Amino acid sequence: MMSDSETAVPRKPSLSDAQVVELVGRLYSLEVSEVQPMPSYRDQNFRVLVPEPQGSGDHTKSYVLKVLNAVDSQDADLAEAQTQVMMFLNQKGFPSSTPIPTTDGRIMSLETISCGQEYKTHIVRLLTYLPGTPLQKIPADPQTLYKVGRTLAQINKVLKEFQHPTLRSLQRDSFIWNVSNIDQLKKYLYAVRDDSDRQAVEQIIQQTMENVLPNTSNFRESVNHGDFSHTNVLVQPLLSSADRSNPGHRQQELDISGILDFGNMSCGYYVCDVAICIMYMMLENSDPMRVGGHVLTGFESVIPLSRQERDALYLLVLCRFSQSLVLAQYAVQLYPDNEEYLLTTSRTGWKLLHQLWQLGKEAVEKVWFETAESYLTL
Is the full-model pTM beyond 0.85? Predict the structure, then answer.
C-alpha cells in the first residue's frame, strides 16, 4: 500500500547525469554530449543534447528525457494514454511533444534504476524538444491570454475525437489535482501555518462543496489537460513579412510554440480546465484581475460556457489556487530540497487568493465578464 504522502506528492526521481547518458545510449542508441536538468514538480526532466554532423560542421539536436516518479510509473496504462494524447494532438497540428521510439520500437520503457541505497522502477520516455519560452518568463498581454484560452478550448474540443484502449485510465476519480476532489485537501490543511490562509481555504472548500459540486451534472464532460499553466505553455515571437526583411525588428505578438506536461490529464469538465488555466495565468500578470476575462473570451470563441458553468467559474479558480498552495506547503515538509520550485505559486498566489476571496464572486465576475464583453465592441 502507498502512503498518502506518496500518492499526493510523490518523491521526484534522482538520476545522475551519468545514468541519463547510459539510458539514452542503451535505449535509443544516441550519444549524449550534454545533460541539462530541467525544473519539475514530481518527475525528473532532462534536456539532452546529441551531436548531429551536418555538412562541414557539427551541430546538436535537443531532446527531453522524462523520468516518471515511482508512483505514477506503476500505472502504465495512464502513461500510455498521456503519451498517445500527445501524439494525437501533434497529428492534429498542436505543438505538443512526441515520443522518440526506443531501438525496439516502444514509445516508453519501464526501467529499474539505482536510487542510492535502493532500486526503483520508473517509466522513461524520450520526447522531442519544443522551442520557446514559458509564459512564466514573459508578460502575457491580453492578445496572448486570448490565444491561450482559445488554444485550450481547441484542445478540449479535438480530444472529443480521441479514442484509445487506455482512455479509461484517465477516469481518475480520486486524483487529488482534480478540482472536483477539493474535499480531499482537508487532510493537508495542517501544513498551512498562517491562520488566515487556512481559514480562507476552509471556507472555499465548504462553499464549493455546497454550491458547485452538487451541480456537476449540469457541466459538460471533457478530457482535461489539467495543468494548462504559465510554466507549461511556451511562446515565441511572431515575425511579420516586414520583420523578415528587417531581422533586427521583432513584432510584439507572441505565438504558442509548445504545450508541455500532460501528467495531470484526466476526464473532467470544460469549465474545470478553463478555471485551472485562469488561475495560473494570473500569477505573473501585471493586471491579474482581468486575466479571467481575456482567457475566458478566447475559450468561449470555441466553446461557449453555459450559465451554470459560468456560475461555477469563480469558486473553481479559487479551488485551484487552494490546491496548488496547500499541496506546495505540504510537499515542502516532505522534500525541502525542492523548496524553490515547489513554492513558485506561493510568491504571489496567497495574495491573489485573498484578493479574489475578499472581493467576492459578484465583483470578480463583473470584472471578468465585462472584460469579455469588451471584445464584442472591437
Answer: yes
